Amino acid sequence: MKRFESPSLIFSDSEGKIFDHPHLKVAGRSGERFVQPDPSEYVPLPRGSQLFTLPGRIPVGWDEDSETFRAVSKIKYGRRNLLCHAVSAFLPPGYVRTLLPATRLRAKAPILPLWAYSSVGWKDGKFWATGIRVDLNPHWDPKYFGDDNLLKKKVHLILKKKFQNRLLVQLSRCALEYHCFAAKNVFLKRWECPLPTSPSCNASCLGCISLQPSECCPASMERIDFVPTPEEIAEIAVPHLKEAEDAIVSFGQGCEGEPLMQWQLLEKAIRTFRGETDRGTIHLNTNGSLPQKIRRLCEAGLDSLRVTLNSPHATYYTRYHQPKGYRFEEVVKTLIIAKEQEIYTSINLLVFPGFTDREREIEGLIRLIRKTKIDLIQMRNLNIDPDLYLREMGGGEGVGIPRMMEILKREFPQLQFGYFNRTKERFYSHD
What we know:
Blueprint: E1 8-12, E2 18-26, E3 28-30, E4 33-35, E5 42-44, E6 50-54, E7 57-63, E8 68-71, E9 74-77, E10 80-83, E11 85-90, E12 95-97, E13 100-101, E14 103-105, E15 120-123, E16 126-133, H1 148-161, H2 166-176, H3 181-188, E17 190-194, H4 230-243, E18 245-251, H5 263-276, E19 281-286, H6 291-300, E20 304-309, H7 314-321, H8 328-340, E21 344-351, H9 359-372, E22 376-381, H10 386-393, H11 401-411, E23 416-418
Parallel strand pairs: 17-18, 18-19, 19-20, 20-21, 21-22, 22-23
Antiparallel strand pairs: 1-2, 1-11, 1-15, 2-7, 3-4, 3-13, 5-16, 6-11, 7-8, 7-14, 9-10, 12-16, 15-16
Helix pairs in contact: 1-2, 2-3, 4-5, 5-6, 6-8, 9-11
């Protein structure tokens, strides 16, 4: 059998031009440890991926001759002496990264923006990243979201008729300015429709994409600054549930705080939806902080629920999510109540190679799954500077993301893995 040839290390110069190293190979990072990626971890860089230069980060590659990891701060390239900057990949929805980029910090390295950084290299005329596809749902393929001219026309036509609906105006900004796929669906009248409702939150997550302290990295978007009325919500959601293909409406979006802070509004909205139609799926993304309010929403007609967490341990959960006025015990209770109410229940597991796949974390996940009987783990890449996260969570290394999934599948044969929210027709489908 022919030996697998690893991709070459890539790096950029100070202008952002990318080069492949003449002999060093890609290295990855599991927590603090440099590793050689397993051949099975490589995927051709999927459509919709992005490449990033990492300021203040020195690329590290694998030297096959000396069998050592080597940092490359400078290199002579032809007649030029280049200062080398690490390069990483950001994978599209449906893929989970398995390794971080292998880097060393320069002095006074800045905090990186809120993206999920993956190791990446060059081979056979294309880029290769370390990741696995965990969800085959075709509705989130970037090819369905590329026609901006069509989108602008549809946004203009709908806003011309419903310009007084503040929530619709917010979603138009999300679609056109932030390029949110779910927001685009609203105007394309298909699939999942987001319903942001809450400008406030009872947590201060380190990687919050809508609100960050000024001394940290900038947030990816501005948070919604108003509470929509039940009428504004229903004007968007009811037609979507009645008419859209594979319709889902979902509370709890990246451009808002915690939707349970507006639980009374959500309860009224859900009852309104179900008073109009039984069609479609009503979903809630939440931090699970108010379990008794979850019971009310389930009784109103909620179909599915997803609770976000970075760890099954209260200590690490608290370090990352920084809850205000609730504890990790309430999060677990929310999952239990949802299952008691026969709601399809999942966790939004914020995956970080070298932390999520540590043995203690896997053991904690096993205990959590046994206790809550969740149906699905949504494997979501955690968007955060890797070194910042490890400073908060402490050092260590993992057994590998694929290995972690194998262990959980063996323990819980019916447990599902994915990335996206599901329609109720597909709740228990394993394809």
